[in-house]
Amino acid sequence: MTYQRFILSQSIIFMASSMIFPFYILLLRNVGDSYSQFGWAYGLFALTSALSYPLIGKLSDRIGDQNLLLFYSLAMAVILLLFPIVTEVWQVYILQMTMGVLGAVQKNTEKTTLARKVEKVKAGGTIGRYHFWTSFGAAIAIIVTGYLVDFLTIGAIFYIASLLYVVSGIVLWKNNHSEKVKQISEQKRTADI
Amino acid sequence: MWKVLLFLFIYCGLFGSSFYVYEQTRSQPVVADAGRLLPVAVKSIEKADGEETLKRIVEKANETGDKLTIAGMQHSQGGQTYYPEAVMIDMKSYNKIIKFDPVEKTITVQSGATWDDIQRHINPYGLAVKVMQSQNIFTIGGSLSVNVHGRDIRNDSLIDTIESFRLLTPRGEILNVSRQEHADLFPYIVGGYGLFGVVLDVTLHLTDDELYEKKTITMNYSEYSSYFEKEVKGNPAVKMHLARISVAPETFLREMYVMDYIYADNQNELSKYNDLKEERIVALPKFLLGLSRYSDWGKNLFWDTQKKYMGNDSGTYETRNNVMRSDTNFMAYESSIRTEVLQEYFVPVDDFPDYIDDLRSALEKEEEFNLLNITIRYVEKSDQAVLSYAKEDMFALVLLINQEKSGKGIKRSEAVIQKMIDVTLDHDGSYYLPYYSYPSKEQLTEAYPRIGEFFEKKKEYDPDERFTNFFYEVYK
């Protein structure tokens, strides 16, 4: 149950992030000034990601993957609300750096969760299925978003993506919550015995 | 559980505020003209789909106190068509041809019609426009408001060819304005940058479409004035004329080529040539212009190719209507950090060689200044408009400049442009007003001695300043 929820939340996250990334360039084109600024925006993203991986790795061992993923979802939900209202390139840079850190949280934690949850013998098949579902969600999202941008505005997709992150956050929170309940009842049972 | 509720509560607040800000910025359309240096949020854009709509827009603005601006194709580059927080009236859909009299050779059109609309209508009748720009993409209202001139050398500027027009005043009345009726307003509104009200429809004099033979020769700049006086102005068969002077480093402001349009002997063959030409495939000139933006060798290559191409054109025939619809697409320039702006300087015909020498020495020190083209035309003395630029018979030099859009880029251009205007004024010249507000107030007053009178009349006629624009607000 919990692993399925994990896949569900990850699928929603992938849907939301795939909604933004291909179309995100449209926003940069409105705000940004040149190809070199595109380069900087994505370069800063990758650089902050790189720098934050080691720290995030340690954190996930200490406070748990689920909590980090929950933090990622909720932080993304909030950050995305800023995208439609940015007007200056430096604001895009700051958002990109924040997204770099958050992106690193997601990537690292996704992998550590899989590493901890998946049985090593069946790892190939399980991770394959995991990628199938998450990528499937992403593909649908990209296609649908194309139409959404046509009918709505570029701003609208950021709001929709933000809401999706909230949903994934709620799924993860319920997951954490039910796991804790389970742990407590198991502890109780052990104590009873 | 309370943590979730707290998050949702904060999130909803953030969502609401973000959406509010987003809607606010979206509801205010951002407008920029062809210069792309002044993007600003206007209050709204109102489409002029008829006289009643226009009257309503003016009446409503008088009630709410909103400022109004008038826009056509927005090729004026100094915000002459808009202003922050003002209502911008988009005239493009107000474009019907109201009356056409082939015998009297007059046409009455709504001011949002373009020269192209007129050409398509009158070409089958063997008629042509008397004075317009070299390109036909502009609206009649916009052209009237900047009092254009073009390749024609036998009429002066557009004002010469305007019979009358109707004006929707700042008070919402409609006046007939001509040299007879409300004659005092006529010279203020033509070349008046839309500051006296909305020009509704315009009656223009037309002329016969003719067949011209093109003649191209290259020469040194020092020979141009005397060539022009003798071979162009002095030869009644030459009806139109244009020239270019090199901006390529190897021949900078020395080499020129000129093109004369000479009344052809075989006018009976007009029908062979009078299909209106459409925009051609522009890949090659676009590519060469592109190269010349980035490098000196590109500029040399572009100049040599232009010269050769124009040379090959010598001896071919073109109708008047086709001369007045030259290509524009190849100049389209897309860059988000840079833009291309125009300047136009008028200098007396006799002063030309000395002027070019001074201009050259002023520009030789400006290595960063990216000058892409200078086209030269001739405009006869005209003092009909209050803001008349042709104080005597003058050459008009149109400069195409590639510059950065940033504040730094604007500052850099300003310094060079003010210097060039000083050189122009030293030679009793003047400059054209539809461009970015680079010139200083002092330069404006020197070039246009009647500018004070113009602004006074504006204030007297439109005391609430209902109609405004950047040009007015910067210089008033």
TrEMBL record, chain A:
UniProt subcellular location: Cell membrane
Keyword list, A-Z: Cell membrane, Membrane, Transmembrane, Transmembrane helix, Transport
Record carries keyword Iron: no
InterPro entries to which the protein is assigned, alphabetical: MFS, MFS_dom, MFS_trans_sf
GO molecular function, one term: transmembrane transporter activity
Keyword Cytoplasm applies: no
Membrane-spanning ranges: 7-27, 39-56, 68-86, 92-109, 130-148, 154-173
Topology of the protein relative to the lipid bilayer: Multi-pass membrane protein
Ranges where the Major facilitator superfamily (MFS) profile domain occurs: 1-193
Protein name listed in UniProt: MFS transporter
Major localization class: membrane
Gene Ontology cellular-component terms listed: plasma membrane
Gene source species: Domibacillus mangrovi
